[in-house]
Structures
1.
Amino acid sequence: MGQEDLMNTAEDVADQFLRVTKQYLPHLARLCLISTFLEDGIRMWFQWNEQRDYIEATWSCGYFLATCFVLLNLIGQLGGCVLILSRNFVQYACFGLFGIIALQTVAYSILWDLKFLMRNLALGGGLLLLLAESRSEGKSMFAGVPSMGESSPKQYMQLGGRVLLVLMFMTLLHFDSNFFSILQNMVGTALIILVAIGFKTKLAALTLVVWLLAINVYFNAFWTVPAYKPMHDFLKYDFFQTTSVIGGLLLVVALGPGGVSMDEKKKEW
């Protein structure tokens, strides 16, 4: 079997998977995507005092402002998750969660940690894809904005979402000299480039979902670490952030790459 035949077989398997899961995949994608916000909102409730004290000590902002920060994170995240899962005011919920990401990036000094910053940007990419999906279900919120076509803003949101999702995988690259790391880096880099440019997008995104799912369960198994250890919270944070990026990739699989992609341009050739 030649390389082209192998690729065609893989695409047939991916298409078959899509046909079987077409009704459920968008719902699963949304659930995965909001999982990190859901977990963080619940954590704000159970770790209210710790979070408030941390913000108060770090920013010297006083008890009241620190409490407002925790309350805003709790209500903003849990409220946004409820709206997204219930399919109500999804666009406003997405903008609210964008605000939460920006707020946490500054408050927790993520801006100066490249790895966490890239993961937050990848999370934003997932929200962009969710925003693009919501545009196809309701009235456009870009009415009156000049564009190249009716769905142009949606297409560029899908492009931006795909490119930002790629940042997650750049944090997983290991610059070691052993064969497995080199192979993993080469295959991973090839797949993220395919997703970014929108070529064989659904197959590449589905492969990345499987790969990322395996890495997530293996490396971020927070359930194996006692809850009182700091590593438990660290792995839990990583696990749900990675799950959210998986949700974004599932949206790419379910919706396709959009108009600004090589897959779409191929149809014109």
Note: Confidence is low (pLDDT under 50) at residues 139-150.
2.
Amino acid sequence: MSMVLFASVVRVRDGLPLSASTDYEQDRGVQESKKYLKTLSKKLSQLPDRCTLKTGQYNINFTSSLGVGYMMICMESYPSVLAFSFLDELQREFIVSYDTKRISNNFIQKTKQRYNSPRSLSIKINLADMQTEIKLRPPYQLSTSDLGTVNGFAHQSTSKYKGIAPNQMLEPVMLAGIVSCMLSLLCGSLNLIRGVHAIESILQNEDEDCNYVIAFFLGMAACFYQCYLFAFCTSWRNMKSCLSFGLICLCSMYLYELRNMWQLLFHVTVGAFTTLQIRLRQPQGKAPDYNV
């Protein structure tokens, strides 16, 4: 039978259990999975914020946010979208009641019962949202080798996750940021079109300067790269955006004979505006750990 077997809420920094569902399962496989869950709970700070670990016929799913981890054991056949929707609901309940420092055991039990009867769930919209989110950002698939042993001597393997930055999220997108991104895409598309036309001119007239083609395509790449920097958190993000803006300015200067003043001003202004929006949309600051 496909169902949720166990759930717990833990503190990320040291794996301290804050609450857990009542454990009625005496199956050896479930108890073995709980050992893996305990080891995982002490490694949450080293792992991506959404993961799945397969342990035989059981799956361990977990998410972490704001210094708190939400973990569960379910049958292998249990739908992933329901599993992470269940964890998302636990997270919302904890955020609402964090001042009590412990999420209610009764709530975990009731939520577990609801998710063990998917037909009775009236959360189709939430499931659709979760389905889309999982498609866009699927859980990281762990293996038991990532944990080493489960007898207290688990080895550290943080290098495998270096650069993932699981909790590094950008601030919410504002209207000005969306406008700047659209304008930057427009400028990049215009550069692409002019670059293609320049290639056609070179093929028809060998005396044409091929450097114009390079300038158009470099300008296109810089515009598209600024859109990427606006959307995603990367290292040296502000410096990269300034370098991209500098490249846009250099390409515009080189192409001044092929564009009028208003066109040049438009490309440079859009580049400056997008660079500003990238700088304003910074990674979110260190999240509170809700005093747990």
Note: The chain has eight helices and six strands.
3.
Amino acid sequence: MEFGAKMVAQGFTVDLNKPLVFQVGHLGESYQEWVHQPIVSKEGPRFFGSDFWEFLTRTEWWVIPLVWLPVVCWFVSKSIVMGHTLPQITLMVVTGIGVWTLLEYTLHRFLFHIKTKSYWGNTMHYLLHGCHHKHPMDGLRLVFPPAATAVLCFPFYNLIKLISTPSTAPALFGGGLLGYVMYDVTHYYLHHGQPTSEVPKNLKKYHLNHHFRIQNKGFGITSSLWDKVFGTLPTSVPAEKSR
């Protein structure tokens, strides 16, 4: 479908040539069906009429490691300075990455795929994740904007400090943040990379299956581990796309 087209649902016409964010809320109960009918184009839509807000929604993939890997190193170094050995640091970082994979699955399944039908519910869902399902090949909206990540880091770090010790919290958080960086870079690669080896090829097929075939299964991005644990692993037999 070309961007010049209009889409009609529940008596409302979505004009794809105009900023979308404040249109999609009018779709009501039809939003869920509309947002899961993907438009496969590398050209992304416009979200806002304001150039400032539009700029904040667009992020190149390489910005994520450029911004956050130094932050990861700083947090891990804090635990090193506090006297932890290399094996201890490694264990803390790996633990942080593992916790992130569970958080990745949980957010994707229960928040990013929440069912909405109100104006503001649809609007917020579209900004959060719906836009990615509607325009899955939009390369500038595949990774999370650093400004939004920075805001979310504060409560997550404070939570880790509450449940761990002062010397282990930085490395645990650094590991979780490293897991996030791996997730965002992997997610971009699964959409735009051309893997040649078996593991990334299977992971790409697994994720695109979530987009184009069974959207209520396969919530893992960096692995299918938690889908196996929680019973949301998609079947290998072709099936009708779920909405």
Note: Residues 86-111 form the longest helix (26 residues).
4.
Amino acid sequence: MSRVVSLLLGAALLCGHGVFCRRVVSGQKVCFADLKHPCYKMAYFQELSSRVSFQEARLACESEGGALLSLENEAEQKLIESMLQNLTKPGTGISDGDFWIGLWRNGEGQTSGACPDLYQWSDGSSSQYRNWYTDEPSCGSEKCVVMYHQPTANPGLGGPYLYQWNDDRCNMKHNYICKYEPEIIPTSPVEKTYFTNQPGDTHQNVVVTEAGIIPNLIYVVIPTIPLLLLILVAFGTCCFQMLHKRKARRTFIKDSTPLSSECLAESLNSNL
């Protein structure tokens, strides 16, 4: 669960003409009010040790009813870029870190020209849109795809390492992006909804669904479970000892009452 806590560390104000203009936190789900566009979630981990493999990222998205990001066209690519640009703008404490998307291939070490055609989307999308960086994919043992996010790296032959795609070994650790079906009504009463313009369409709205206080409390409480159990055991032991002492005291008083009466009677007889 410490991994989940790291999701809450990245935040930014998303503003500009025709783009997001609300605070979005890494780990939030972003939905469009027109109910036609998918929802998205940027899962950014500031701690390198908390980042995940391709399969872990895939399972994380699927466990929430979504899938790793598939991209249908350049417009959707630009939308994701806009979200990442605002999420990772200067001053948010977010540094370099690529993002897993749902593109991968099931094959062993192909290096031929047919290799790029072997890639498929994990959510079953038939989209043929690709945004490879120069000389990518390199294939070989690299079968899973990331969206570059290396803003501090020196540009390469294909320009800055930003938002273009690269194949990587599937066991490497990265951030990831989930994609969900459009949501009609927020499912949680504690969720907070924001409205703002959709990039590239000044008449559409975006709903940013905030996780709310209850999930955040879960992230705090779960690591403290051992301490809570220890306190519970100590409290139970204390109660048991108090009850045992009280019972022993009552037994002593009960047993000593006849003896006290006999001593009193004998004392009276002696005086007489």
Note: The two ends are 82 Å apart (CA to CA).
